[in-house]
Amino acid sequence: MSEVPALSIQNLSKTYNNGFSALKNVSLTVPQGGFFALLGPNGAGKSTMIGIVSSLFKPTNGSVHIFGTDLLENPSVAKQYLGVVPQEFNFNQFEKVQDILITQAGYFGISAKEAKPRAERLLKALGLWDKRNNMSRELSGGMKRRLMIARALIHKPKLLILDEPTAGVDIELRRSMWEFMQQINIEENTTIILTTHYLEEAEQLCKRIAILDHGEIRINTEMKDLLAQLSVETFVLDLTQPLTHPLVIDKVTAIVQPDEMTLEVTLTEGESLNCVFEQLTKLGIEVGSMRNKSNRLEELFMRLVDKNIQSEDSMKEAGL
């Protein structure tokens, strides 16, 4: 018998009182375990979907099941499985850090005696233990973001939704947060749904991806299968010595020289980066380092969004 999905959304629609249709008959299944990326441009419907799953909004039509439990029929049971880290800070700014976790645990029927060691473990893991007796308003933005994660995990949910969890967080802190999330995912088999504007995070962490746009699911597939669709890739080559003359390289789609120390090489499927390096070596040009000009997922994402915008513009021009 197949495993019950962590999240099952069927024919979900949401139309607000002003007539705006935020979700249009959306169906989505998130399997247990691993990271799942839910991406989309601003206004795509992600916040509405998360709001419905976390019981902030009621859907116009459709159903939501969390680990097989109907959210609309048994919300108290379904929400035991769920932890949510929203974009906005929504805790009591005048409550102590540790007390915020213990209070949250109480909402799930967890006693203070049981909650305290859980809170200690989470605060230590997220680098907040030294701040446990501070008022939450005294924390930096990055610390507040980590406190939100600790609060969402205090009742040991089987499904964790992270809505832009690293927004405004510096690179080093982002890396440590993701290491902790990966640990939670592996050690406790917590399913994690991630929305983020840092698309490199989604590419590195998530095995599956769904892209939502204008209230509809445009893509729902394995990350590796989506990235395999990318036929064009641009590499940035940092040179060790300045290049003072225009360069011509055979068997590449395009080569651009932004400045005397940099080359941008665009390759399509079948073109070899090794061939580029061989030609540069023959010309006595040494490359110090190399990187992708843009994240691969970002490139695909922007193509999808641009395609949909162009399609809408064409419909408007046709009077449809």
From TrEMBL:
InterPro entries in UniProt: AAA+_ATPase, ABC_transporter-like_ATP-bd, ABC_transporter-like_CS, ABC_transporter_ATP-binding, P-loop_NTPase
Stated name of the protein: ABC transporter
Taxonomic placement: Bacteria, Pseudomonadati, Pseudomonadota, Gammaproteobacteria, Moraxellales
Keyword Transport attached: yes
Gene Ontology MF term list: ATP binding; ATP hydrolysis activity
A Pfam family assignment: ABC_tran
Keywords: ATP-binding, Nucleotide-binding, Transport
Residues in ABC transporter domain copies: 7-239
